[in-house]
Amino acid sequence: MKSICFYFQVHQPFRLRKYRFFDIGKEHHYYDDYENEFIMKRVGDKCYLPMNQLLLDLIKEYGSQFKVSFSVSGTALDQFEMYYPEVLESFKRLAATGSIEFLAETYPHALASLKSKDEFVKQVTHQRNRIKALFGQEPVTFRNTELIYSDEIGAMVADMGFKTMLTEGAKHILGWKSPNYIYTNAINPKLKLLLKNFQLSDDIAFRFSERAWNEWPLTTEKYVTWLNQIAPDEQVVNLFMDYETFGEHQWPETGIFDFMRALPAAVFKHTNFQFNTPAEVSEKFQPVAKLHVPYPISWADEERDLTAWLGNELQDEAFDKLYSLEDKVKTCNDPQLLRDWEYLQTSDHFYYMCTKWFSDGDVHKYFNPYGSPYDAFINYMNVLSDFEIRLQQCVDNLKLQPRKQIKPKVKPKNKRKPRKTVKKAKDE
Q1: Which CATH class is domain 2-291?
Q2: 351 exposed, middle or buried (CB, 10 Å; 0-12, 13-18, 19+)?
Q3: How far apart are CA 220 and CA 329, in angstroms?
Q4: Where are the alpha helices (DSSP H) in 108-247?
Q5: Are strands 2-10 and 273-275 parallel, antiparallel or unpaired?
Q6: Fewer CB near the last or first residue (10 Å), C or N of the chain?
Q7: Residue tagged active-site, from 105, 146, 244, 248
Q8: Do the Cβ atoms of 67 and 37 come closer than 8 Å?
Q9: What phi and psi, each to the nearest 5 degrees, are found at residue 72?
């Protein structure tokens, strides 16, 4: 049987407060606590809690036949604990069913894979350990921030011991090939790749409530018809989307919850598909070919490249300045500095600086706290300037600390044993 693989991205950034030039060197708290708590509770009520309950009900109804996967950023986990512990508990109840796979990613939802291998590995290890501590799972599948992938990034992921990685089924990479097969990394074929079917994913995530869409309204009957039109020899349909699709991006009034509640029954009744997690799909099917991706791809915009986060002068200057501080950060053990260092790497900060306001403009404006990309840049650089001052103070203090004098160990002198003298026998 062919597989449907659902993967949901759960992420909330720590949004920065309005940080003025005159705050630099004086105020060291960077986050808009009110806005972060407000958005977390709003999304928790509209999406996380009702959707988690819906999935729990489906798992109770269908048992191990229905499965999905989550990637939860560390910043989202931190905000669950700070602002809405009930949400975290609801994810733990899902984890306890055994029908959920939790994936690994960078802890702060960062772009470190593009800049620093050491930082990348550290962040992934941090998130991986947190998932194990909270949900009792050791992640074996990896998804990078924004589904960013290249041959080199895939090789790094394979070196960390992951067997499977998710990425975008970008047209300019696939060409005539289908995203509905398993591929492998071009450098290390041991890493299997699952590619997003963006057409069928975006039908739910973006077009579901779009009345101008010629396929509106989308029903489960129509959707399973599209699934049945997939070529018989193709293996898997990977449906990757933001979890906030349910209830937040697509409001309950659109019927999105009803659609999801009815989908498993329609799939089981009218198709030869079954639901599997990424790890199960990876074990179930054999790869068909290597996938060559010399330059990084992502899920975003028509181009499926990095220009949503990097590429204009604002983004590049902020990004380069941030990672120029990495060596100094490595010398400091201040917990608050290390926490701020991670949170300042979150990809959303660079997304807000994007100057692409064309076909994808509405996506870039969603939950954007700034009036313009320039406002986002100025605010971020003010915060970064204060962070750099604190970081330098930490480095200077370490230099001033007296070093412990370690007395050199004196090797004991080897006492030479007296040589035995052998008396020559006298000639008789």
Answers
A1: alpha beta
A2: buried
A3: 51
A4: 117-135, 151-159, 171-174, 198-205, 220-228
A5: parallel
A6: C
A7: 146
A8: no
A9: -115, 120
Q: Residue 186: name the closest of 143, 151, 158, 159 by CA.
A: 151
User: Is residue 365 predicted with pLDDT exceeding 80?
Assistant: no
* Mean pLDDT, rounded, for 92-114: 98
Select from 109, 98, 102, 68 the least CA-distant residue to 88.
102
Half-sphere exposure of 261 (CA within 13 A, CB side): 11
What does the mean pLDDT of the chain come to?
93
Annotated catalytic residue 146: yes
| Tokens of residue 97, six digits | 């069913």
**pLDDT confidence of residue 116:** 97
Query: pLDDT tens-digit profile of 278-300?
Result: 999 999 999 999 999 999 999 99
Nearest to 222 by CA among 206, 240, 200: 200
The Cα 385–Cα 375 span in angstroms is 15
Q: Judge whether 350 and 298 are in contact, CB under 8 Å.
A: no
Nearest to 99 by CA among 61, 47, 46: 61
Question: Which residue spans of the chain are classified as CATH 3.20.110.20?
Answer: 2-291
Which amino acid type is present at position 202?
A: D
Question: Which H/E stretch holds residue 56?
Answer: helix 49-62
- Cite the beta strand spans of 169-317 per DSSP E: 182-185, 192-196, 236-242, 273-275, 289-291
At 47, which amino acid appears?
C
Q: Are 176 and 142 contacting, i.e. CB atoms less than 8 angstroms apart?
A: no
Q: Give the chain's radius of gyration (CA, Å).
A: 27
Q: Residues 10-65: pLDDT tens digits?
A: 999 999 999 999 999 999 999 999 999 999 999 999 999 999 999 999 999 999 99
3-state helix, strand, coil in the chain (%, to 5): 50, 15, 40
The rounded distance, in Å, linking the Cα atoms of 68 and 394 is 44
* Tokens coding 161: 């011991």
Bridging pattern class, strands 273-275 and 289-291 = unpaired
Q: Which residue in this structure is represented by tokens 């995530």?
A: 205
C-alpha to C-alpha distance for 245 and 257, rounded to whole angstroms = 10
